[in-house]
């Protein structure tokens, strides 16, 4: 029963990690494109909420893994 919580949390953490990598790549590509300061700030401002959301999903998944281990 608690294996599902552990594996679900691990899957959630992986989804969050994929989101974080996507955010890193998005800003990296913008930086490599040599955008102006205002354009770069706009890219970062668009990516920031997604970055925080991905971090939250990843942490939530890790918390589920810990809870599953403690209960199991």
Characterise this structure.
The protein has one domain (2-71). The protein is 92% helix and 0% strand. The model has no long low-confidence stretch (mean pLDDT 95). It is rod-shaped. The N and C termini lie close together (8 Å). The protein has helices spanning 2-32, 37-71. The chain is an all-alpha fold and 72 residues long. Keywords: Membrane, Transmembrane, Transmembrane helix. The chain crosses the membrane at residues 6-28, 48-71.
Q: Could you write a compact summary of the structure shown?
A:
The chain has two helices and no strands.
Global outline: rod-shaped
Secondary structural class = mainly alpha
- The total of helices stands at 2
Strand-residue proportion: under 5%
State the major sheet.
none
- Tell me the distance between the termini: 8 Å
Radius of gyration: 16 Å
User: SSE order, as H and E?
Assistant: HH
- The total number of structural domains is 1
User: Roughly what percent helix?
Assistant: over 70%
What features would you highlight for this structure?
72 residues; 0% strand; mainly alpha
